[in-house]
Amino acid sequence: MDSTLEKLQEWRKNTMVEHLGIELTEYGEGYICGKMPVDHRTHQPMGLLHGGASVALAETLASIGAALSVDLSKKACVGLEINANHIRSVHEGWVYGKATALHTGRSTQVWEVRITTEAGELVCLSRMTVAVIDKK
């Protein structure tokens, strides 16, 4: 694992990201990938993947992807809006997310996140708008 990915894994500590079991697996220019278990931490009462957990995975990937594209000594990235279409239910295993930058401007970014099953079936399609703000 490269040093940046190891550093990103450190950002997870003592957060909801760690609690949900979200792991970052890959990143590159304009994208970042991760995975999340479908288990007792991410189930809704009927034993299915909770839509909110999918949104948490999507926001995690988009937010970290956005942060990787700015100078964090001067800027911060904060979510403005997120939407999600839940396409397929999942009972167990893992889901995989890939966040791709659609727009990376000076003051806003837009990221699309596709969450799939282990077999590659679409579970959730999300889009997040991120504000790029000056650090105080």
From TrEMBL:
Q: Which UniProt keywords apply?
A: Hydrolase
Regions crossing the membrane: none
NCBIfam families of this UniProt entry? unchar_dom_1
Tell me where in this chain the Thioesterase domain is found. 46-124
> Metal-binding among the record's keywords?
no
Q: Mind telling me what this protein is named? A: Hotdog fold thioesterase
The family assignment reads:
Belongs to the thioesterase PaaI family.
Name the InterPro entries on file.
HotDog_dom_sf, PAAI_dom, Thioestr_dom
Question: Which species is the source of this protein?
Answer: Pontibacter aquaedesilientis
Q: What start and end residues bound the annotated signal peptide?
A: none
- Hydrolase as UniProt keyword: yes
